[in-house]
Task: structure prediction
Amino acid sequence: MTRNGKTTAGTVRRIGAVAGAAAVLMSVLPAGAAVAAERGARPGRAAWCPEVEGLRVDCGTVGRPVVSGKPWLGSVSVAYAVLRHRDAGAARGTVAVNPGGPGETAIDRAAAFAAGLDGVLGSHDVLLVDPRGTGRSGRIPCGVTDAEYRFADRAGQRDAVARCAAALGPRAEGYTSAATADDIDAVRARIGAASLVPYGLSYGTYLMPVYASRHPDRVDSMVLSGAYPLGVDPLARPSAEAVSLALKRVCERSAACDGDTAVEDLRTVAGKLRERPLTLRIEAAGATRTLRFTEDKLANLLYEAASRGAGESPAERSLLGGLPAALHGAARGDDRALRALVDADYRAAGREDQASFLAVVCNDYPRAWSVDSSLPERWREYRAALSAADPGRFGAFSVKGFTEGQTDGADACIKWPRTGTARPQPVDAAQPDVPVLLFAGDLDSNTPESATRQAAAQFRRSTVVTVPNAGHVAELESTHCTLGIVDSFVRTGQPGDTSCTAAVPPIAVSPIAGSPVRR
Result:
């Protein structure tokens, strides 16, 4: 959810969807905070094991079957790093962090997590596991790059999914959230931790409840940020509705534009792109590429990309802050500002292989068709679902335009094979009765507050903290208030005083000349 979101520059994700999860916690460091780099390995340490100033770091690997019960499909070596607590005596617990994706790595971000979770590390160890198929845990290329997937039209994305599945073959069955959850528990056992505090960001908010449902006796409490439920809407209607709300909020809080006008401008531009898409030539991943910017690409820009990084540097103009003025111009025939925003976003597309992302979302997520149906039957079932959908739930977009903007939902996985792959993840898996803290940025359209509250309903004891002026993954907000709440919750099981969220400043918004609310 990413859901997927884009979690690093150049990775297509939604929920895993993070404003550069490589910097999820790096970006919230106090000025002058020490950040340790990976150095040469000490004797007896793996060469890839990071060194973090002031902390002991233990690393290792655990051998795991690719598909349980099918040894002929081989094994995967799952890598981990444990950042050891600073205080004397035994650790009070172990926080296991997943930065999102699916497909994001954790070990190479050890310094960032150590700095961001500095308070937690006083009493708790922090466990970083590279999910199978990523980083140090056996990469699995399938020949579909981030840039190829992002620049492709919708038919091209569906074909890319089919090619990726064919390249993975029967091993595709082994790349699921359930398998990764079991890997994490195998690592937990290896390091001798009796239990964990799972901490999921973006897609990690899907993975960690899967872990909790499969290993309920090993969970002390849980933190989920940028969350969505296991039963995520395959048509992403909460995100479509949240786009308009985010535009209204940034206009109202900045007084740089009128929110209702911004939404109407979006509706106008979406209609224009349905009739006549823009064509852009963009330098990305070492090549000049042609982008046909259609309504679905606009939808993706608005709900996914614009949520990324909102609030991280509030005084600087973010993508979300530039959109009202860009849409206002494009609605009136001047698309230069919109083209500039699109160019800047797509330049970040990279060469990363999308196997670990596509395999997980196409194995796990709910679909608007039966996975047992033939391809023609799937299309009939999917079109019936679209026809039955209320167009009013898609905000300023058409039903087709918004659904085709999803990189991990709608019809993206319709060509994923019926056989040789995994069954979708159960959406009603029982969860342990433990405290769960959830964060929602109120400018996040990727995993909006409504989705976070649906995620919270999965647990008996949950607390939702809505962070104003924050986008996808609230820990990116500039005041560091959110990380202080995490620290309190991990140490005490209670979020403590959350009133500091009221001081998170509004983001800068490009003013629109003549706006009726401009001061």
